[in-house]
Automatic annotation (TrEMBL), chains A, B:
Enzyme Commission number, as recorded: 2.5.1.18, 5.2.1.2
Annotated keywords: Cytoplasm, Isomerase, Multifunctional enzyme, Phenylalanine catabolism, Transferase, Tyrosine catabolism
Gene that this sequence comes from: Gstz1
Record's GO cellular component terms: cytoplasm
Protein name, as recorded: Maleylacetoacetate isomerase
Function per UniProt: Probable bifunctional enzyme showing minimal glutathione-conjugating activity with ethacrynic acid and 7-chloro-4-nitrobenz-2-oxa-1, 3-diazole and maleylacetoacetate isomerase activity. Also has low glutathione peroxidase activity with t-butyl and cumene hydroperoxides. Is able to catalyze the glutathione dependent oxygenation of dichloroacetic acid to glyoxylic acid.
């Protein structure tokens, strides 16, 4: 029997949360190995973890005998090997829109406000730097979603774009971004957080969530 | 008859180059509309362009009646609608590795050294900032490629990963990154630059390439 997939994850990492949502949506049973990005100077820098993922980042997923880094590559692999329920629409044009929104978040917003970049800009600049990255991305995203959204990012089916959206909104809240200019984003996020897969995978409910952040 | 795809592109944008390579590899005839990211304070900020791509970034591709932003979303759409020659292997595990390498570059390196971020870090910090982003990503990439590469990034077939690699190496050279610690990256890059699709799409050979940079 094939062994369970193993997810290397940090409770607060928005990219780890993307993968946890997808695993939950698809009903895939898995084990979590927490990698604490802060403790011991960052457990992602250990020799052992670097062998698994030379990028020294979470998430990484051990599955079917390989280890995949990069959350969107993981989502695409899950979609190809465990297609039900689907995270990409059938229509190629809608798939393109879903991927465009996913990439907008995964390449255009998140990398600019992740932990390693914020370390580089210095303590006092972290909040304005992260806020700028997120508002600039959300300004574009809000416009796009106004023409693509139904109940969720693209129509009424949960897709890869939604899997990226909710964790990015959580980051926005952490960095105290004013969400009032983004009614479409906020509305979709609310609908997503009502879904069980988004709840069980939530940063406040992980094995490595500190007691004071649990809800 | 369907109209030709229109690519909004800037000669030096590495993300635009990715799409130009894919269009060339797949033999897709297209028109280029140059968007100068410097001139007039940045033509990507014009009302007209923002309507096309609210992210105010190149590339954007008008094709089959839709406009797609984000280079990897464009590559995936081209792959799904014009599958020959393929940019993703048939085997799902190899596809995952190709996408992981592509995302490592597209989310893990390029966004940290793009024009808008470099503007933010200030003139005197630009070179060291860009060099750090690229060397940190290339350190990981070199390790990964040592176990995946044949003639190209993943085996002996040109893939999406290669489409991302050559433009990133060009950026590394522009930012004077020492490439000697990266023999596998350098070797693959050399093989790629020998291919016609990489040559015709090269930044030094675009309609908007300034005369002094043409070769």
């Amino acid at each position: 029997m094939a062994s369970k997939p193993v997810l290397y994850s940090y409770f607060r990492s928005s990219c780890s949360w993307r993968v946890r949502i997808a695993l939950a949506l698809k009903g895939i049973d898995y084990e979590i190995v927490p990698i604490n990005l802060i403790k011991d100077g960052g457990q992602q820098f250990s020799e052992e973890f670097q062998t698994l993922n030379p990028m020294k980042q979470v998430p990484a997923l051990k599955i079917d005998g390989i280890t995949i880094g990069q959350s969107l590559a993981i989502l695409e692999y899950l979609e190809e090997t465990r297609p039900i329920p689907r995270l990409l629409p059938q229509d190629p044009q809608k798939r393109a829109i879903v991927r465009m929104i996913s990439d907008l978040i995964a390449s255009g917003i998140q990398p600019l406000q992740n932990l390693s970049v914020l370390k580089q800009v210095g303590q006092e600049n972290q909040m304005p730097w992260a806020q700028k990255a997120i508002t600039s991305g959300f300004n574009a995203l809000e416009k796009i979603l106004q023409s693509t959204a139904g109940k969720y990012c693209v129509g009424d089916e949960v897709s890869m774009a939604d899997v990226c959206l909710a964790p990015q909104v959580a980051n926005a809240e952490r960095f105290k971004v004013d969400l009032s200019p983004y009614p479409t984003i906020s509305h979709i996020n609310k609908a997503l957080l009502a879904l069980e897969a988004f709840q069980v995978s939530h940063p406040c409910r992980q094995p490595d969530t500190p007691a004071e952040l649990r809800t």
